């Protein structure tokens, strides 16, 4: 520690240069720490499990050149599904009102008492026939699937002021929230006014269509209504045969003289890639920002250390002449850098926490985990020592005679 006082004296004489390095380290610590947290949240989003057999699913959307009577939609859909399920290589098919990674989102309030009294939660509302579970590849944890005679015509069900939906299938998140520590099968809930619905099954994973809206809720509450009507056609085919099955399904849906056109037929994996394109781009952007900031900080430390070695050549020679070893000269510059880096890191950690609070309030981002703070500090300490190593080693190798001559 005998080098501490000379280092502090030197830094006081070079306040501007030392202050710039401290500021650079502080900014890097503040920004890089939060950027790494944002990257981690994006990676978690990219790895979110939808619960579906995505590699086997394709989604087809139709547009009719002339409007179809809403009361005939159910029969048309039933006919379409019969023909789609007969296609070679198609395991199953269904029509659903919404699909994960899609652009639509249907939600309903669910309560344990009629007319939305008492505890009430919001749940993502899926509507499809009894083939939704095998088509999506959803696993039942308890209870059963819908039976064919329980499927209602969507238009007829909602043509009255208070729809009567007799059965529901819910996901585990919704079951745990409504009936913690209990079985939910056979329990009654209320979705539409005073009309009760009985829970007949619980599936393991069924997410919100916009997964990012439900990340903070363990995947979000979701339910399935036994309704057949308009929406997206979803087929499940043998792996590796999706493209051929999309073409075959398109031909089936467009034939028959109804003036219908398949506007979009895509594998669900393609929809997932598009859905997460922005998250992926943000992760790469944040990674580039981190690398750029760390490089700039390292170059600043190297430049300042090299400048100070040149300015202190005579001092180095004097210390060598008085018996200082190469290791002592090296440690002198490393300790000096450690003091500057530590000062910057302390300021930067405070800035990182403040920036995290601002992001939480302004953009509803999750709180910065405390583990990122020591990790960021350790990274910048390591970077500082590596950056100063080359100029410090060059200074340590100066001989006393050469240094004093200079």
Provide the fold topology.
Layout: H1 4-13, H2 15-46, E1 57-64, H3 73-85, E2 90-96, E3 107-111, E4 120-128, H4 132-136, E5 140-143, E6 152-153, H5 154-157, E7 167-171, H6 172-178, E8 188-192, E9 195-203, E10 222-228, E11 232-237, H7 242-254, E12 260-267, H8 268-275, H9 277-311, H10 313-321, H11 326-363, H12 372-396, H13 400-405
Parallel strand pairs: 4-10, 6-10, 7-9
Antiparallel strand pairs: 1-11, 1-12, 2-11, 3-4, 5-9, 7-10, 8-9
Strand content: 15-25%
Residue share in helix: 40-55%
* Number of helices in the DSSP assignment: 13
Average pLDDT score: 86
Number of strands: 12
Low-pLDDT segments: none
What's the shape? elongated
The secondary structure category is: alpha+beta
Order of helices and strands: HHEHEEEHEEHEHEEEEHEHHHHHH
Count of folded domains: 2
End-to-end distance: 28 Å
C-alpha-based Rg, rounded: 32 Å
**Biggest sheet features:** 8 strands, mixed
What does this structure look like?
The chain has 406 residues and is α+β, with helices and mostly antiparallel strands. It folds into 2 domains: 4-47 and 277-405, no CATH class; 67-258, no CATH class. Helix content is 50%, strand content 18%. It contains 13 helices and 12 strands. The protein has helices at residues 4-13, 15-46, 73-85, 132-136, 154-157, 172-178, 242-254, 268-275, 277-311, 313-321, 326-363, 372-396, 400-405; strands at residues 57-64, 90-96, 107-111, 120-128, 140-143, 152-153, 167-171, 188-192, 195-203, 222-228, 232-237, 260-267. Strands 3, 4, 5, 6, 7, 8, 9 and 10 form an 8-stranded mixed sheet that branches. A hairpin with a 2-residue loop joins strand 8 and strand 9. Helix 9 packs parallel to helix 12. The longest helix is centred in the last third of the chain and has 38 residues, at 326-363. The radius of gyration is 32 Å and the shape is elongated. The chain starts with a helix and ends with a helix.
